[in-house]
Description:
By secondary structure, this protein is of the alpha+beta class. Helix content is 17%, strand content 41%.
Amino acid sequence: MTRLLCLVALLLVALAPPAAAHVVKAGADLRIAQTIAGSELTLVIKATTRVPGPLRVEVIGFPTAPGLSLRLRSMADGRVVQGTVAPGRPAQLGVEETGPHELTVSAGGESAVLPFRVLVDRGSGWEFLIYGGLFVAGLLLVGGLLTGAFNRRGRPAFVVTAVAAAGVAVAALVVVLEPWLPAGAPDGAEPRPTDSAIGRPYVQRVVTTVPARPAVGEEFVTRVELFDGSTGRPVDDLTIHHEAMAHLVVTSEDGRYFRHVHPLRTAPGCLEVRLRADRPGRYLAYVELERTDSGGQLLTGSFTVTGPGKSTSESNATSDVADQAAAAPGGTVTVTPAVPQAGRPATVEVSTSGTTRPWLGMAGHLIVRSQDGQFLGHVHEMGTPGSRLRFTFSFPAPGRYLAWTQYATDRGITTVPFTVEVPR
Ligand SMILES: [Cu+2]
């Protein structure tokens, strides 16, 4: 009996997964895509393990990124540290405290102010039970085995081994149940909002440009101002989703112009990005974002570019996009079935030129707009990076769609445009 219990206890110890298996958000890197100084880059604020200590910041460029100057400010005591970061040259900024900080990122006369929290995992209280239980069990097991070896009657050994087995059982139970047990908040975490049960109102937006009527060929600022639907105050609680605070897609009416960019937070509730349009006419803007406790949202807006040339509404969308596709550096697009049905999943496959690398957390992106601009869809390639991207997309209704697939390689971000006709 004693031997059987020992065997069971040993098996439990051997089979229990390591306590580190649980996911601690405090230990995760924060990745934020930014379009700055004409470059697309991802800023990586590495997870901190101790405070005071170094905060590591890296930058990934698509394909390259300018050198960025960094300014880290603690919101608790106002302490400021500065540094620079470039691809392959990470920055180390000293942090004294956990809690709210602001990282100002500047390059080419542009700046973004990124609020974030320095979090350090305290470890969950449950770990104490796991390691405590295993420790006690280990001690008693050894004791039990020794007592069993020197005591022929075996009763004390039985008791000791039974207690050891109970210790192991408690530890194993906590290991198994840990994903469902409440975890302690990390150091520096935001206090739980009291209104989280009902959620926050959707964001209202105003999309404007500076100047108000940009001219063809000239750089202008696209500004997205976000307001709370009920208080009218600026919305400054966006959560990072798909590695960005907001994803902005700007297309000309005919689809010939397409930009997928990640605006800079220039002030609370204010996002800005610099663009340059190549033809006059109407442009449509779509903003994908997610507000804390409010879910994802798609906001739309439009603006007009003035100047000489063929207007964005005069050209034939299909032929222009086809010309553009022919000129694209890589990618043969295959849609299956060749004539997709409305409301039924279709498969879009794109052959890539070069090995893809993850961008915005995915191997590839497919963005689909109805010709009239009333609909915008966005799906991801979820597979592993390779030479072929595959998307599943359901066109919502009959009509003509303008579509763009995007992926990143070492040479930069490739956009492959194509059109799809969905019959009645
Ligand atoms: Cu994006």
